[in-house]
Amino acid sequence: MFDSNENDPISPALRALLELFTTELAEVRFPDMSGDVLDDAAAQVRAKAEAVAQAQAALEAARQGLQESQEALLQKGQRALAYARVFSEENPELATKLDAIHLPRPVRKGPKSEGATSEPVAAANGNEENAPKRRGRPPKARPAQGASLFSEGATAESLAIAHEGNGVLPSA
User: Fold this and answer.
1) Phi, psi (rounded to 5 degrees) for 33
2) For the segment 124-166, what is each residue's pLDDT rounded down to a tens digit?
3) Do residues 106 and 75 lie in contact, with contact meaning Cβ atoms separated by under 8 Å?
4) Cα 89 vs. chain centroid, distance in angstroms?
5) What sign has the CA pseudo-torsion 121, 122, 127, 128?
6) Distance between CA atoms of 97 and 74, rounded to whole angstroms?
7) Cα dihedral 73, 75, 76, 82 sign
8) Could you give the 3-state DSSP secondary structure of residue 30?
9) In the chain, what is the straight-line distance between the N-terminal and C-terminal CA atoms, in Å?
10) CB within 8 A of 125, min separation 6: which ones?
11) What is the mean pLDDT of the chain?
């Protein structure tokens, strides 16, 4: 796992030193120090780094499992609370206790993609084929452009004056 230089747990300076002890200084021996001693220590560092990577992967998997279990409990809790509220309709004391419990809404996970836009934005941009199909009754037909409720050029002030006065709209 740590074969490439960018993921190697051994610093570049120590790698350069290890390289020197395997090439130019391969035959040189110092008290308690040689290329073999350095290679053994480097192998131990790489093994420990691999153990850390495996532990981190196991931790991430455990966290994901915990999150899924918490979400399942929350959904069951929401359902239990709803049942209990219906059950407590004739018991005001129990209803008061249940009203004090506020569970968060469960998070609904949708498909995630990096380039996807949210549904309202896609519909607003005229991207009809990706927008979700609208449910319910179609909207009522809107009046034509010329059939405006107010006359052209009428302002809020002129409408207020007409309402207070004789009911005749001033001409624009």
Assistant:
1) -145, 130
2) 455 555 667 777 787 777 655 555 555 555 566 655 555 555 5
3) yes
4) 37
5) negative
6) 18
7) positive
8) strand
9) 80
10) 117
11) 78
Instruction: Assess contact for 1 and 50: CB atoms under 8 A.
Output: yes
Report the length, in residues, of the chain: 172
Instruction: Give the confidence band of 3 by pLDDT, cuts at 50, 70, 90.
Output: very low
Q: Report residue 130 CA to chain centroid gap.
A: 21
Q: How far is CA 23 from CA 5, 16, 34, 46, in A?
A: 19, 11, 12, 21
DSSP per position, 107-126? PPP----TT---HHHHHHTT
What digits encode the pLDDT tens for the residues 70-126? 999 999 999 999 999 999 999 999 999 999 999 998 666 666 555 545 444 444 455
With the C-alpha atoms ordered 36, 37, 42, 47, is the resulting torsion angle positive or negative?
Answer: positive
Q: How far is CA 102 from CA 11, 93, 105, 124, in A?
A: 52, 17, 9, 35
Q: What count of other Cβ atoms lies within 10 Å of the Cβ of residue 35?
A: 19
| Residues linked to residue 33 through DSSP beta bridges, in sequence order | 30
Q: Is the dihedral of CA 33, 37, 42, 48 positive or negative?
A: negative
CA separation for the pair 18, 35 (Å, rounded)? 7
